[in-house]
Amino acid sequence: MGEGEDAVGAPCWWSHPDRPTGGGPGFRLPSGRVPAAGPVPPAPSGPVRRRRRHHRGLRIAIVGVLAVLCAGLLGGGVGAVVQGTRQGGRITLQPVTEAGVRRSPGSTADLVRAVLPGVVYLSVRTTGAVTTGTGIVLDAAGHILTNNHVVAPQGKPGGITVTFSTGQYHPAVLVGRDADADLAVIQVKGVSGLHPLALGSAARLEVGDPVVAIGAPFGLVGTVTSGILSARDRPLTSGGDSGAGPAHLDALQTDAPINPGNSGGPLLDASGTVVGVNTVLRSADPESADPFGAEEDSGSIGLGFAIPVDRALPVAEQLINTGRATRATLGATLDLGHRNGALVTAVGAGGAGGRAGLRAGDVVTALDGTPVTSGDDLVSLVRGRNPGRTVVLTVRRGGRSLSLSDLLRSAGGRAPADSA
């Protein structure tokens, strides 16, 4: 067969419907050769008739396919009309019937279901205002742990009403409060069927472990949020501009959303045990005078803080048994305006710092390995520990770095802000 010929020996010319037969500039044969210039020879009738029959068959096939599609669409439309007519002109969508959701044992839903009865919600009425918060049921006697700033938002306790997860509510009385630790215990009397929460330890948590917070943010009771433990040993001072007075906290940090109304509620680990008491949030409001105020109007930005239950439990026990609590102390006075460490201005002879060899003029740069950047940091870290615990101080004295250690002593009463 010669080049450019079809099966019957005639020249084979390719054309596009939009072009004259024989092509134009850039036109090529299937082989890639450009056809020679010259007149286009007439094609014999045989191949033309064969092509026409081929095109006619293709058109018939296309028409057949379109007819089938139109029939299907028409049938579906008729079916929909019939269905709608049978149901009074309205279409009713039926949900798919499925089995119940399968959850693995120990899921967050199981955890929440088990602990919700042990979380209560507080309404505190003071002169001209009502504040809200959350509480943790401690025992069958009706003792409830919460924050001091919840029960005494302006420094003085108000009338307290407790609402349970069942919707029932009862008045409560104040058992005791500790402004330094920002903790308080209240009690409901004559109430049966209480569900105390299991109390764990924050010491066994690691950064990255999952945690769950429960509370009543903005009055929305029973709100559950979750996240992870973001950091440990976060020294901070909260409530400095409130009547409740400043509290120095050695806190757990979490990204579980905590908002106004979560204060006093539980921070739970993956097993459902209490590891912290939700206390403050970091506000993004630049106009806020106290960025760590627990009752700021601004919402969560993923920086919430909780008092470790290891610190809260001894305080709660003392408040229940005696109505007041003690705190740990080094017996040192600090310059709160100094930065790049905690500058010691005076040391009591009988305190832990004096026994350890701490001197005026020393700069404490770490406590138990946690960096100290200011006097407030050292106060928070010391008060966040329990009396009787041995602590290790890293001290800069002159050009030397020293390590000093001793047992923390206990002290009662409200401590000066510059006393560690």
TrEMBL record:
Residues 319-397 form the PDZ domain. One of its GO terms (molecular function) is peptidase activity. It holds the Pfam family PDZ_2. The chain crosses the membrane at residues 58-82. Its EC number is 3.4.21.-. Coiled coil: none annotated. One of its GO terms (biological process) is proteolysis. Residues 1-52 are annotated as: Disordered. Belongs to the peptidase S1C family. This is S1C family serine protease.
